[in-house]
Amino acid sequence: MVALRGKEIDAFLARPDAGRPIILLYGPDAGLVRERADALIASAVDDPNDPFAMVKLDGDELSAEPSRLVDEAMTVPLFGGRRAIRVRAGSRSFASGIDTLAEMGVKDCRIVIEAGELRPESPLRKACERAKTAVAIGCYPDTERDLARLIEDELRIANLRIAQDARAALMSFLGGDRQASRNELRKLTLYAHGKGEITLDDVMAVVADASELKLDPIVDGAFAGRPDIVETEFAKAMIAGTYPGVIISAAQRQAAWLHKSALAIADGTPASAVLDGGFPRLHFSRKPAVETALRNFSVTRLAAIIEQLATAALDTRKQSTLAAAIAQRTLMAIAANAKRRG
Q: Where is the DNA polymerase III delta N-terminal domain (predicted)?
């Protein structure tokens, strides 16, 4: 099995193994998937905008003709040099193309596959994990340590420092999506250019909640038992063009956080300590809704909701045309059942 983790990922991304030209990037952090894909493509070819060097393929289209992936990977460049193929995976499998490529051996071509969340039994993930010429890299939301490193990297580039209270506030605003977090940091460093040190006022003035503030009312409304809020805010998100799967992902992360918090409270940790501590830090504006959610749901019911949301996430990928209906129905069901204590 070639599934990289932890420091193995950093080492591979810094110096990709030429013997493993097939790279699957998957996970809930779409921004991190894109960032890593961009870096891998940039290091694979001299010019990512050269159509003779870079080919983009759609995963759902490949599913009808997986051999096309093989043909593209084995094509000899007209003017020599290296090539790269970027595949955006969809809901349909093209794993047989990966199996064939793994047996043939690929030279001077890197295949980078971007995918969303994939279960261990996913054909694409299994194909990449069992192939000796492929790697599978999970892309999950940044941990506290990851965010600290991200902040330091951006501050170092901008030659800026940050006050302790400003850093603490900044950490609470970041983390849902790597690309969104990095964009917010660059906006902040541009705002503070020439000031030497970033203050709390700078953070509050510039940084929007890149971690999902716009989705929080939907998620909090569901767990707090407020179907009216879910309906209203969900409609706003659809008008804004938000993909329903992103909302379900946010709900999954909140369900996992609530489950972990409920376990801690059951073990004797005061609810106030759970709400004020931990990571990611809870925005103060969300505390009333989250307190209500913790009163509404037991550990057992939260475990069931995690399964319910996992099924919804899978269904939104399988039936993209019904994704909005699936997501809204799931969240409304959670909100309706929240009033049933226990």
A: 24-87
- CA gap 24, 267 in Å, rounded: 39
The structure tokens listed for 22 are 């097939």
Q: Is the peptide bond before 280 cis (omega within 30 degrees of 0)?
A: yes
**Average pLDDT over every residue of 272-297:** 77
In the numeric block, the tokens 């961009």 are attached to: 38
Predicted confidence band at 1 (pLDDT cuts at 50, 70, 90)? low
pLDDT in tens, 175-192: 767 887 888 899 899 999
| Helices assigned H by DSSP within the chain | 7-14, 30-42, 59-64, 67-74, 95-104, 123-130, 144-158, 164-173, 178-191, 200-206, 216-223, 227-239, 244-266, 271-276, 287-296, 299-318, 323-338
Distance CA 70, CA 82 (A): 16
Q: What is the pLDDT of residue 281?
A: 62
**Which span out of 5-14, 264-273, 329-338 was modeled with the highest average pLDDT?**
329-338
C-alpha to C-alpha distance for 65 and 160, rounded to whole angstroms? 51
